[in-house]
Structure formats: C-alpha cells, structure tokens
Amino acid sequence: MKNLVKRVYVRKKDRFDYKSKEVKKEIENLLKIKLEKLNIYNRYDLEISDENLDKAINNVLSERNLDYVYAKDEAKKLEDSFESALAVEYLPGQFDQRRKGVLDTLDLILDEKTDCKTATVYEFSKLSENDLKKIENYLVNPVDSHKIDLKEMPESLDTKREKNLENEIYDGFINYSDKEISDFVKDHDLAMDNNDLKMVRDYFKKENRNPNETEIKILDTYWSDHCRHTTFNTSLDIDIKAKTVLDEAIKNSFEKYLKMRDELDIKKPINLMSFGTILSKYMRSKNDFDDLEVSSEINACSVYVKVRVEKDGKENLEDYLLMFKNETHNHPTEIEPFGGASTCLGGAIRDPLSGRSYVYQAMRITGAGNILEDVDKTMEGKLPQRKISKLAAKGYSSYGNQIGLATGFVKEIFHEGYKAKRMECGAVIAAAPKENVKRLTPKKDDIVLLIGGRTGRDGIGGATGSSKSHKLTSIITESAQVQKGNAPEERKLQRLFRRSEVSKLIKKCNDFGAGGVSVAIGELYDGIDIDLSKVKLKYEGLKPSEIAISESQERMAVLIDKNDREEFEKYCREENVETALVGVVTDTNRMRMFYEDKKIADISYDFINTNGANRNAKVHFVSEEVPKYLTEKSDNPKYFYEKIKDLNVISQRNLIEIFDSTIGQNTVLQPLGGKKQVNPSQAMVAKIPVNEGKSKTASIMSYGFDPYLSEKSQYLGGYYAVIESIAKLVSVGSDLEKIRLSFQEFYEKMDNEKSWSKPLKSLLGAFEVTNFFKMPPIGGKDSMSGSFEDLNVPPTLISFATTTEDIENIKSNDLKGKGKIGLIRAKYNSDMTIDLDHFKNLLEKLIKAMRDGKIISTIALDNKGILANIYEQALGNSNFTLDFDNLYTPMFGSFVVEYVEDLDFVEKIGEFSKDLIVNEEKLDGEKLEKSYLHELDQIFAPKEEIPYEKIDQKEMKVSLKSKKPVDKVKVSILAVTGTNCEWDTKKAFEKYGAEVEINLFRNLDKKAIEESIENLSKSIKSSQIFAIPGGFSMADEPDGSGKFLANIIRNKKIKDAIEYMLDENDGLIIGICNGFQTLIKTGLLPYGKIKEIEEDDPSLTYNTNDRHISTIVDTKVLNNQSPWTSGLDLDVTYKIPISHGEGRFIVNEEKYKDLLENGQIFSVYEINPNGSDYNIEGILSKDGKILGRMGHVERLDSDLYKNIYDKKEQKIFENAINYFKK
C-alpha cells in the first residue's frame, strides 16, 4: 500500500533563528514595512511510512537542541494559526539541493523508498494584502521560484512523468519565403538571425526534407554568440581618421596590427577576434612561444611550466601543464543571482577540469550598480542591486567553498552602467602533471561516456539566452536558462580526474557548458552517433530537443577507447560517479541523434562547422580626446574624508570573508593581510599543487580594468588594463618572463556603426602593450549583450595576467612600517600613454631591488589614487606622513614602494609616523577607519568581535602514551559527498610519518552504501586514528551541517568499529569543522560515546552574522595535557584558518561547568568571530582522546600566508602520532 504524504514544519528555536531576524530587518529597512513577527519554516512533504517518520524527523529533518518541529496534525494546526503567510517553492525542473540532501540521508538509514518535496514558509503578523504582495515581490524571484498555496496538500508526490518523444517537424520550412523566415526567427525567439536561418532552409532543401525542432535548436545553440563568438568574428570595415593626438596613437597601433597581418600573410577579413589572437600567431611563427600547449581539444589557456618539487630533502624540476580560464555568467546572474553566479564558477572550473587539470584557485571580478540605493529606486524588470550583489556573492562563494576551491581574490567594481546588466566574472587556475594529459585523435568505434550529474530542464537555452540582451520580460520568461549548481557532484569529478590512471585513459573530454549534449559531445569529433535515451535524467518527460540542449551542470563527455570502458567505469564507481554510454565515433561526418531506434537529428558537420552566415559591419570610428580623468590634480587632503566612502575605494572585507581562501593548503598570499588582516593583496598567489612532495613554485594571477577610464577612452582603457595587470604581478614578486594573458570583454549590443568602435579601440590599446612586451593573450571570453532599454554597460576589457614564480620571491603588498615611502614614477606621454621602454626599465630595476631586499613592499597604483592606495596598505600596520601634489588621480604604471635603501629611481614622498599627516594636514584616523571598514556593513554583515574573558578550568589528567604502541600509525579518514578537506588532512598526518587511508563513502545505490559501511568499519578497526575532515557533507542539507556524516557514525557497524578502535586500539579521533559538527551531533563530543542527542546537549549552529566566515583567527590553548594537545604553549597566540557558516558553539551553563570540571575546553578565540559561547573554538572528550575544533589546523604549512605574521605551528598531528610511538 502506498504511503500517504506527511507534512512537517521545522524552524530554528528563537535563540538560533538568525535568518528570520535578518530577513525581518531587511524588510523593515528596505520595504519600510513594520513587522511584529516573522518566522521562517522549512516545510517538508514526505511520502514515508508512519514508523519511519519519527526517524526522519529526529535524524534528518531536525535537531532536538536547535529546532521546533510540527508534524502531521501539529503541522495543520500551525498553518491554521498563521495570520499572514507566504509559501515558496522552486519551479518544476529547478534543482533542489535540500530535497536531495533529505533523500540521500534517508537512503542511508531507511530500507523503504521515500520521496520528498520542500518549501520555505514565511509566517508574519497580520499584514495588508498590499504589504504582503510587496514582500512577495522582494522575497520571490520568479526566475527560479514561485508562490504556492499554503494549505494545498498533495495526495502523492509521484509526478507520473512518462517518456516524451515529441519532436515537431516544421512542415513547409524548406519552401519558406524570406518573410516567413523572419517570422520564424521571432516566433521561436532564436538567437540566430534571418541570414542564418536562410542557410538552414537552403541546407535542408538539399537534404530534401524539413528540419525538426531538435535540429533547429542544435543549430541555434551551435551558432549562438556564446558558442561561436558571432560578434567577435564579424568581418569589419575599418577606417581610422585621426583628429587628436590620442587618435594618432590609436591609428599607429592599428597600423602595427596591419603590418603584422602582412607578415603573417593573413587574407581573412579583419574581425575583433583577430586583435586578440594575432600576437600569439606571430610569436609562434617566430618560434618564440614554446610554452604554449597547442591542441584542438583545449578548453582553457594551457602552457607548459617547470615546477620545483622537494621530495625526501631533494629538489627536482617536474613538467606540468598550467591552465587558466575566465568566464562570465552575466545574463543568468542578472535574472537569478545565486544560480547564475554559482554556475559561473562551476563553468569556469569545468573548462580546465575537462583538460584533466586540478583547479586550485579562483578569482572573482564583478560589476554592479549602487548597492546602497533604496530598493524603491529599482528599475522595472530588474532585481534590486543589493539583492543581486548579496545573492550572487552567496552563490559563487557557496559553490567554491563546497567544491573546495580557494578563492584568492575578490573585487566588486561599482558603476551605474552595470545596472544594464550585472558583470559576474570568474577566473580559475589549474595544473596537472604533463604526463597525465593525453591529447589523442579519436578513431571509429571509440565510445563517449557521459559522467557526473543527471540531465534536467534547468539550463535549457542558456547559450542562446546569454547571447541576447536583457529585456523587461527576461526575469519572468527565462527561468529554464538558469542552472542550479551542485558543487559536491563536481567535486567528485575533480577527485576522479586527479587520478593519473583515469586521466591517462581519456583521449578527449568536453564539459557540458553551453549547448549541453549537442555541443559537449558533438564537438568531440566530426562524426558521432548519440543515443539520447541513454542520457540519465533527473526525471522523465523531457523531449529529445530538451535532452539535446540542456546545460544541466556537473557533467562531462569523455571519449575513450571502447576496450577501456570496463576499467574506466570501475574507477568511476570507486569515486561515486555515475556513468552512461551515450555515443559512438563514426566515419559519417554527421551528427546523428537517436532515441532508442528513432532518429531524432541528422546534420552534416560540414554544415554545422560553417557557423552560420557571415556577418559584416562597418565601423564608424569615434574620435577620442585625452581624458581629464588622468590629468586633473588635487593636493587637498580633506577631500579624503569623502573619497574614502566611494564604493570603489572602501574595504570589501566582509564580502571577501564569505569566500574560503585557505582550503587546499596552497595559498601563499591571503586576500587580506597585515597585522589586522585589512590590507588587500593586489594579486592571488598559490603553490602549484603536486601529487607527491612539496611544491616550491607558485602561480600568480592578477587583473587590470577601470570602467571610468574605459568609458572616457576605450583605447586607454584597454591599454592600461594590460599595464595594470602586469604591474600587479610585479608588485608581489614576479619577473617579466613568460607572463601570459587572457581577456574578458563585455560590451553593449553592437547595433550601430559607432558601437563597434568601442571594442575595437579597447583591443587596439591592449594590443599596443602586449605587442611591446611580447606577452600574448592566449584566451578570452566575450559577452556582447550588455544593454537594457537605453542603458549600456561601460566598455569592459579586463586583462587577466598569469605567470609562475619561485615562492621565495613572493612579497606582500602591505606596508610594514620599517622603511621609507617612495614613488617609482612612470613617464607619461602627451597622449597619456606611457613610455614603454622607460616602463620596462623601471620594472627590471624594481624586480632587482625587491629580490635584493632593498624594497620590502610594492603597490601598483590603480584608479583609487595614491593616497587611497597607501592608506589601504598601511591601515593597521602604521600611520604615515605623505607630501605629494596628486592625491587622487590614477597613475597607472607607477608604483609606491617601501624601501630600506636609497635608490636612484625611487623618489621619496613620505615616511611612517605616529599620526596620519597628508600635505601637513593631520587627518582623523579613527573617522577614516570607520568609513573605510564599515560602509558596506549594511549589505554584508560584519563578523562578531567579542574579546575573550579568562576561563579557569581544571587540569586534565590522562595518559600521554598509548597502552597499545605501534611501529606505524594508521589513520582512517572518512570522506563523503561534499567533503573537501580530505587531502589536506591526509598531508597533515603523512608529514609525521602516518599511513593514511581515505575512505570515500559511496551512495549511488544500496549496494554501494552497504559496501562503503563494510569497508569503513574494517578500516576504522585496523586504525589507531579516525579523522573526519571538513567540508559540506551533502551540501549541509537539509538545513544543517554534518547530518549525513552523523547518520553514518550512528550505523551499528560503524558505531561498533569506533568503540573497538577506541577501546581495543587505544585509538584517537579528530573532527575538524564539518567533522567537529559530526562529533557533536553524535555525542562523541563531549561525552566520548555515540548517543541520542538531548535538548540540553551542546551544539554547533549558524554564525550570528548569518554568513560564511573565512579568515585567520587568533586562538589560545587552554589544555595541553591530552594525547592531541601535549606540550602546546598556553601563553602564545596560535593563528588558525577558519572557514565555516555553522561554527557557533552553543552550551548551557550546566554543561559548560562540566567542561570546566573535566578540563575539556581545548581552545578559545581571542576575538570571537561567530558568537560561540565563552569564545569556545574546540573541545575534547573527558579522556582527551577525541578532539573537535572549527579551526583548520591541517591547512597550515611553511611558505603559506606570507602576509599573515607571527604564525606558530600547533603540533596536534605530531602529538597524535607520537602518542602511539614505542
């Protein structure tokens, strides 16, 4: 008999309900609606038996010590009591991470098949219909969610979807008139234009048949601007008539470009793309580009590098591929900020990941309007700027934090033009041993496997949608284009591809970015058969055309030899990755799609690869004057009180801290450094990760771009974007060897002759500098739809610069207060370009002085002006005295340095001092600091700053030597879907000689769960130490961290194994972050045994600022008398990375006294960031054998965090190993 649907409401107890408080404050402040009450509930409709409902409630849906629960009849009574309410759920087809978390965890603990539907319900005090509608409009984004009937109760959750083979044939299409072609384009909202569709008509006329829906959508996707760069490949008629001195510079650059074309004998028409690619072609023709990897498969910029690797005390050079990629998701983020931004990063990751490289660091550059403006000033058809900004930051950070990708640099750029369309740009850097990457030509009968996530309606039309301008209706009509990312699923692919035995089996690979199956598989080889019926779906009912073009995330198309299938699928099962054989290579030169035996599409690659009709445009060159923006000067220090409040000057600390910057044990420079961690790094730097040994080589990435310069002069905007990106690399220690670039272009729709002039001039400016330095752009991404009504984005060309450097040469930008303040001044020409020969000479002198230790800090000057640049790098370290006549005008190409020896190319302009004095005017440092650090607090909540109050606890008296010593200590690490710190934890133990086994818990089906439980129990029993590392198990769903892990621990076999290890092996347990949450939720902490959790037990819950916090905290150890903590210094400050959203330790007074009595408090925050009771960071079990903490001590190592000072090693891993030594 089928189970009836049961309804359950869960909400946080008042003390922990920070989400409701935050939303209430937002509504009252922004909508001006006074609320007496606001409670937020998670609602679950479950198809489950009565006997299993309690298990689901107590083990999955709620926690006794944190939540109120209302089930069945109580749920109905609750609904009846609401005075005003709003119930919201995702639109059909949108990925629901909470639902997945519920079902995956229920699968772990129940034998019956269950189903679930989730919603969020807002309960208000009595509201007018008008106020309730205002709140609905603010809270509900129609792109991904909708309001539902509060009390409607489904009888069943079975949607009864069946196969759908609908594939309309467009009868009469091959005989359409030009008018009918035009109408077809409009009626079907195609991205292609009339001329493209005429080509399609003529092609199918030759095929002697009419096309079907799938074929039209495949071609529309393949030929979209997103996929084929229509705008950048448009043939241009260019005539530059110089009227000004700046025009002469532009014309001169164009003539250099033409001369290079002549040398290369290029006959193709000029297009925008050629300005970015010509230097690379030129250098290759001169055999001056031996580090570039050349392959038809490359999805990211890829260069050969040498990595210094230290093993067993010896250093060797190893061959690696370094890959980097930038990506925008402007349109998706504009209409659905969380999903658009999260999949921006997901898409950027998958490009180099498909190249079999490991992605280890990310950069985020975004563009927004005024996020402080009132919500009622929001343009019609738009979301409020503050909402876009907050949700986009949450989306991007959530994805990166979950997948385990360190974000090394975050910058939001503010310009009113980005109200036309938000800029959401991500850049990533990746690496792989050269020997792991095979680029092989496919042959007939090779097979294509689709691996990873399943396919749904989310992301249908993403490629074509991103190629269109934003319209008033976009926010309502384009929901299917926006995907919901599933970061834990992509983490599985990262693990899989990092295995060399897997990587070496792959001939070619493509990620499911724009175009889905049709493009990802179609691009692998010109001759392929695809069986759409084999594509695994999230749900039945998708039409063939939907399966063909859905861009559902976290999938890869892998082309391998058919004889390698069994081995490859075995590795996939080991990594918990689903596979399906969906394609076969043929010699037909056609893309053919089938659904079982029915042919769905059949198109010649000769036709697909035409990329549609040729595009031609005439460029009306728009003359440029030298902008006053670069020439006007001011020496008035009092103006700094206003300048410091500029959105582009103020600190973005609270925004930056949302992004995990330390995961991976590779970060060399923190995004914020200095004594108070408020000084922003000008570039991101990370060790290139190696599989064995210790890396001594770092990658560096920077960016350059100023929208205010670019809107006034596109030529100088592109020119100085490159200059700035190079200067920032040098500022942190790079030399000039083998700097490589990638551009991101974002412009208005090219709908008139003058508009073409903007990207042309930007690219010519960039070409002038790259040509001089022979630093070619080897990749890029263009987005040419930045228009909304009459508003356009500022002309945007971002230069991303990348290189590698020895770690010893890396220097931080923060001013140390130990030398003098000097200026290295670039020589500016009359057209406000710089003397590039002089600039290069200055760079070479600067690099030498930095290497010689004569310059200890360097700041590449940017658009903030010299005073702001100095201030942001001195704050918290030292005040200064400055004497200079140009405080606010950008001086791109110049540097401020802190020098300890006089140098002939450095002009002294200041010194460090007790007070802040500028041009003999003493400034109010406290007032400036408040404006600089706290202007954005209303958008991105600050962390707590609660000082530690002394705690006296009793000494713990336990044995510091094991009764069961061993020669080799074995460590068992548990990793599940969402774990992301297993490698860092493994390295931390191996450093001290442990033998470490990572046990990946697989849950694709019941058999995999049973095998995983069996394997894990055996591993634990044979180990001395059991470790549960950090991460986001099941994406911290449903509504809380560690629930999936806790239910593994409660399994009888695992429980017995843990008890055996603790008793028979005298074993130890550690849980960090997500692992600490697991130990708390199972009773292992503080009780030392697995038990049912009671209402008064300690817990870990959401940070009081209701956001993720990633920073390095000062901690103090209170216990140094346990196996883990023996010998730690009670009198020093230990700096430990944290990265969590649920790190607030909660304990009542009675249990707190028990902790004190037993000496169980291990560590406290000196300044509490998350609201933890008594500043507690970590605790121990009574016997000292189980340690749980939020701080990521496993992420500490030498050569890391160079801009964080006075770091001391906390030897808890060494202590644990020594505990078992004979």
Automatic annotation (TrEMBL):
Pfam families with a match to the protein in the record: AIRS_C (PF02769), FGAR-AT_linker (PF18072), GATase_5 (PF13507)
Signal peptide feature range: none
Transmembrane segments: none
One GO biological process term: purine nucleotide biosynthetic process
EC category name: ligase
Domain named Phosphoribosylformylglycinamidine synthase linker: residues: 186-229
Keywords assigned: ATP-binding, Ligase, Magnesium, Metal-binding, Nucleotide-binding, Purine biosynthesis
Matches recorded under PANTHER family: PHOSPHORIBOSYLFORMYLGLYCINAMIDINE SYNTHASE
Protein name: Phosphoribosylformylglycinamidine synthase
